[in-house]
Amino acid sequence: MSISEINSKVAEAVTLQEAGDYAGAVVKVRSALLLLAALPDSRQQDAELRWKPEGLQHLLTHLQRLATAAVGIGKTPIEYTRPDIETDYR
Description:
The protein is mainly alpha-helical and 90 residues long. It has helices at 3-18, 22-37, 53-70, 85-88, and strands spanning 43-44, 47-48. Strands 1-2 form a two-stranded antiparallel ribbon. A hairpin with a 2-residue loop joins β1 (43-44) and β2 (47-48). α1 packs antiparallel against α2.
């Protein structure tokens, strides 16, 4: 486990939410929070931690709302055909 892993998970979450995959982003933020919770210090060797637990928790709550709102939204293809004037309008 390293700071770069936490930063990577957050970056992946940003990419997923930009693509509209809020559920996937939630998974990545949760992973970042778990890694952060197990990190005893905010610095390892030359790497610095850029994320505060409170900020990630806020992000997680926001993404969970978006993921919940996105469930059930879907696309239904609609096909339109013009009526045949000679047979449909008698």
